[in-house]
Amino acid sequence: MREMQERCMKCMKENGGLQECPHCGFNKNHQQLSPYLALGSLVNNRYLVGLVKESNTEGATYTAWDQVASRQVNVREFLPNAIVSREEGNNALMVMRGGEMTYSECHSAFVELWRKLAAFRNLPAMPNVLDIFEENGTSYVVTEYEKSLTLRELLLKSNSGSLTWERARQLFMPVMATLDQLHSSGIIHRGISPTTLVLHRDGKINLSGFSIAHVRSAGSDLSPELFDGYSAIEQYDAQGRHSPRTDIYAFAAVMYRTLVGSDPIDAPTRMQNDRLMIPGKIAEQIPAYVINALINALQISPADRTASIKSFRDELSASPTAALAATQTSVQEPRPKAQIAPKISLWSNMSKFEKRRILLVTGVTVAVGLLVVLLIWGIAGREGKKPDSTDGQSTSSHISEMIEVPDFAALGTILTIQANPIWRESFDIDVIEVYDSNVGKGMIIAQDKAAGSEVEKGSKVTLTVSLGAEMIELPGNIIGMDYEEAKALLSDLGFSVEKREEPNDGSKTDNQVSAVNLAAGKEYSKGTAVTLRVWAPYDDSKTTTATPAVLATTTTRRPTQTQAPTTAPTTASPTTTTDPATQPTEPTSPSQESTVPTEPQPTQAEEENGD
């Protein structure tokens, strides 16, 4: 292919066919790793595919050249590599047996997502979708290429690793307006981070890294791609409910990174011990209303978090509505169990923002001090009085304060409870942690003191807290093992094992594991089903058949010298066109490749005449 010979597969510039590109130094002998498309592949008879730019368990994005428009583009291929593969020299995807349902579901979600995003092609901060098509048993999305760098790269180039609030405000506000429109259309990004926000030459930030929900949540059939420090706590829970609040947490975390210069602590760690703070020196340079907005948006519990992008923008801009809401906020005493405890600050040294609270705390401290003085004075006044001789008992100066035990499960997560000074001072809280796949991590399962009962202030209360689903890592040495050994190993770890036999031509070892449907080295919930592909016992009774099995049902066409019948696994058909009733239960060979011209089918008369 002339285009491939004269164009670099990395930078897509003409290189005159040189071994090393004079523009970027890329060596043309470089081979693309399987199962990605080979360098120089042509899709839709238009787009010349080059090097993989980035990938996750949903798919891969290639640098590409549009031969019709003569420009560089990005091509995104739906490629869930945990359940598909490619044969060398064949671009058609093959779906692993047992993965058909997952492939179909995720493929439909992929197409639906990008068709929705295509409707926003002219919206600021959005990728410009140029084309969507189906080929090779999968789907492709073509987006406009523009030279850019990620927000993380921009921050790393800064001497301080951070930006001022004024600069950050200019960058982020337009993106938030776009995100608000996406949320209104039911689209949640779920992957906002410094690496998925990209800065273009015009100085504006765009959203990138859109993926289906299956790879942005733990517990799905595809290995999750979460961004520690930026993914919200509900994304670490298989039963977690995603909403605009999920993106709000991520966006606030990105702003924290931009202003502070360091990544925020990841949500699971914060659940156990929340030490997220803004250093006082930096806090002095940030408006108090901005810090307050970040506090509200970075609440771990979704119920406590800012509910909408519009509200978040209002708080960041100190709009009259947000300011009024702030002035109406007051410090509250323990509330009835049906209500939620007030939000708490995330940081212990917030300078300007904390001044208001310091004044309030000082006033409370003075009041408590006066009460103590009066109490001591009263006790001193009673000194010298001898015990009543009639009962021989001394008068006790200890006064017990009785308080009502709340329904801790209704107050939020264990972190919310432990971080709230009201509950810390009222009870001696002890925690017992247990795994429970039905209850989100950090949620209260039970308490030893009944809600509504009265106990002495400072009494010990034991709370049983969920650790969520127990996670176990899939070993990386399963392929090549005997099935029984592999099953025993996985069962001992806590996996559920399923077996799928593959035909054996006699060259494979019987009962040996040939493939696994889940990615090795990744963590999965205890009880997750693992499908092992195993070579079936060799059946030598079938070796006497000279004609390939695929020809047994092909009575209307004879193979020619240039077109020999072959057998290969089925190509994955696009879910929008496949008829489930006609889909084979076993992988079989596609009748032709999309890039090869179709040979005319002989008529019935020609068959009968032998023509």
Write the layout of secondary structure elements.
Elements (H helix, E strand, L loop, with lengths): L1 H5 L35 E2 L3 E9 L3 E8 L4 E8 L5 E2 L8 E2 L4 H19 L10 E7 L2 E7 L3 E3 H7 L7 H20 L12 E4 L4 E3 L36 H17 L6 H6 L7 H4 L4 H10 L11 H8 L3 H8 L24 H30 L20 E3 L9 H6 L1 H6 L1 E7 L9 E4 L6 E3 L3 E7 L4 E3 L9 H11 L2 E7 L10 E4 L6 E3 L3 E7 L68 H6 L2
Parallel strand pairs: 13-16, 18-21
Antiparallel strand pairs: 1-2, 2-3, 3-4, 4-8, 5-6, 7-8, 9-10, 10-11, 12-15, 14-16, 17-20, 19-21
Q: CATH fold name of the largest domain, please? A: Transferase(Phosphotransferase), domain 1
Number of helices: 15
The CATH class of the largest domain is identified as: Mainly Alpha
Average pLDDT, rounded to a whole number, is 79
Tell me which oligomeric state these chains represent: single chain
Distance between the termini: 36 Å
Largest beta sheet: strand ordering: 1-2-3-4-8-7
Number of domains: 4
Name the CATH homologous superfamily of the largest domain.
Transferase(Phosphotransferase) domain 1
Portion in helices: 25-40%
Structural class: alpha+beta
Number of separate strands: 21
Q: Looking at the structure, what is the overall shape?
A: flat
CATH architecture tag of the largest domain: Orthogonal Bundle
| Share in β-strands | 15-25%
Rg is 32 Å
**Uncertain ranges:** 322-368, 372-376, 379-398, 544-611
How would a textbook summarize the main sheet?
Answer: 6 strands, antiparallel
